[in-house]
Design goal:
The complex is a heterodimer of chains A (about 260) and B (about 260). Chain A has about 260 residues and is of the alpha/beta class. Helices cover about 40% and strands about 15% of the residues of chain A. Chain A has ten helices and ten strands. Chain A is globular. The mean pLDDT of chain B is about 90. Classes of the chains: A alpha/beta (about 260), B mainly alpha (about 260). At the A-B interface, helix 2, strand 6 and helix 3 of A face helix 5 of B.
Chain lengths: ~260, ~260
Amino acid sequence: MHFARGDRKIFDGLDITIPRGQVTAIMGPSGTGKTTLLRLIGGQLKPDRGQVLVEGQDVHRLSLRELYRLRRRMGMLFQSGALLTDLNVFDNVAFPIRENTRLPEPVVRNLVLMKLEAVGLRGAWALQPSELSGGMARRVALARAIALDPLLMMYDEPFTGLDPITMAVIVSLIRRLNDALGMTSIVVSHDVAEANSIADWVYLISDGRVVDQGSPSQLQREASDWSRQFLEGLPDGPVPFHYPAPDYLDDLMTGGRS
Amino acid sequence: MGAFQRLGQWSLGVLERLGRGHLFLFRTLLALGPLAMRPRLLIRELYSVGVLSLLIIVVSGLFVGMVLGYQGYITLVDFGAAEILGAVVALSLVRELGPVVTALLFAGRAGSALTAEIGLMKATEQLSSMEMMAVDPYKRVIAPRFLAAVISLPLLAAIFSAVGVMGGYFIGVGLLGVDSGSYWSQMQASVDLFEDVMNGVIKSMVFGLVAAWIAVYEGYDCAPTSEGVSRATTRTVVHTALAVLALDFILTGLMFGDL
């Protein structure tokens, strides 16, 4: 699959397969297009060339109605949570259920409370998004994302900006929900330890391509130099510490005239 | 060459934006149909777009009417024609000031709020998250706000004109001594329902459509950053003001002149 923004190539022949029922982590440095990849899978962006197949359906050949029908079976946890700020926690989680089904209100209520219970926030149903901490907001967003019991769940940087306890909660929730609901999960992240701890399969992407893939243990054993630098967080290596620049000494001696 | 290139680039950018704006309007109009099934969404927006604009419209209408009463009287009294003050105030309001000033105030009060609200929803990924929840933002967010603005503006313009007429009455009759019977009877004799009132209503409907379109489009199309939202809000007010004044000129020519 190929995708570019203006002259800048984001994906240049990216080829990945997400195994059904497993947690797949997609990792790579910032700016490699991980979030863009999720938007391409969700049909919010269109590739320049190539296909995105979800359950055998080419996402970008579907009509708008078919695309929305497919999205009912997809869930996405946004990095910011993206809660609707004019609705409280309960109504946020109820939102996709009310919009996409004609279930009676007592059933909606029970479903919402079940989803909130799954993320440990049943007691917070009446709070407004502005009253939630970052971690709580992400858990509410998670409850909302799983409200329609999706087959495919996508997580966009779910661990970023969380305190260690909340991060551990989110890590365990992703794994537990995947196994309990029989979902397929894609976790886009650059938090190596957390992603590795729950992933069944890992793709490392850089410069628009897959540079390495395998199970977390496999990658630890057989990773390339680039992957090792990324996975171990080494400041220098195949990815240089310095941004390309003219010779340091020349730069200093010319006093900025060159 | 550089200047030509920049001019070409700018022109292409403007054309592209115009094209996107028309596609946006088309999708918004298509999304109006399902709104009939969910009137509650529309009512909520009518409240925030229309009812909450009432105060500024009523107060402004009152002051504009009072100023018209003063200025009209000062001019007319020299010609011994102060009795036609009611007709002057009413015609000025119904034909011109009502639709135009209401549209300008609407752009500042409700249009900018609509742009900021939709822009912030975009910047905080709320619109994206709706799409991913299989909820069409055009149906859920854009169409109700657009329709509420289109409905509200003519009603607000009518209220503006009515309050303005009262303002003119307070000053002309209450303060300056114009005969009350003359004020109303001259107004009744001079203001034609179709020629004046309906043309004013048509104007305010056109302004409502344009103001609503610009406000929701600027919000939806803005760069998803705080700076982007702020620029879009400014653009809404500026573009609406320019569009309303230009359209007013054209519509006045078509309705009352021989254009």
